[in-house]
Prior knowledge:
Shape: globular
Structural class: alpha/beta
CATH topology of the largest domain: Rossmann fold
Amino acid sequence: MKTGEVRLLYGEEPYLINQRIESILTEMRSKTTEEPEYLVLDGERLQREQLREALENASLFAHFRVILIRRPPWFGKPGSKAARKLGEVEETLLQYFEHPSPFQVVVMTAEKINNSNRLVKALKSKKAVEELKKLSRDDLRKWVTNQFQQRGLEAEAAVINRLVGSNWSMFQLHNEIEKLSLYLGQRKATMSRVAELLEDNQEINIFRLTDALLARNTRAAQDALQQLFIQGQPPVLTVYMISRQFLQMARAKGWKENGCSAAEIGSNLKIRHQFIINKLLQVERSFSWDDIAAIFQYLLEADTALKSTGQNERLVLEMLAVNICQAGRH
């Protein structure tokens, strides 16, 4: 892509859309020694004035920028409930399509589009619509195999077939393979070694987030949150899963301080996999009891905000992640 371009990316596999966005960012970075400004807008909540300001105002921090508008409800069938929101922004967008800023790239995403939609027609006339189709079963098998190879692992055919036939999203598959790689080390991925892990798969979507929070890695936590929003993870469930993980960590810390061995802690927590216990015992040293108390207060406040105040769900979770990572460091 070149600066001054507009692109609509659509498809049913969010992972592929995210990968395409990353390739666009990489391409933009390769064209200059200066890091472009990267502005991400929530299309579902974007108002006309916010859109106009984002499109028309020049970047204050970089020579050029990339604007990403995630999942705006503008590209559906004319007259549909979602597409009716288009009337508020249609002229602003059409005018911008004709006279885009030469100092920025605008990328929009959607799961589906309607070819009779006025915006879709305008973008197609400029060859600015890009469909990212779900991988065929054979291509998905190649992708899964490659994911293991990138981590220096060999996986037997039964493991590959189990993952390919799971009907999980590519985000879920990516996270599951990452979890398996941590568990296996350099051992071959065989069904006898990973069957229990594959059955225990309720937390795939949340794995990267809780891992990042326990490591106090704010950027990785925000990236993981973004993936969860894309996948449609309920925010209240996200808070519950974070709470459960920190409760496990706190219990492991308490038992360790009382002289329990790693095996005893695993038995007490009913965790079957030693690598999970080892991770909890490694990260608990980064959190004082005051930190843990503050974190559970943050979790309570986030849960209350989501259930009763009507606050922006994304903002609530993003602030929760920042607060957890910074607990005790203010």
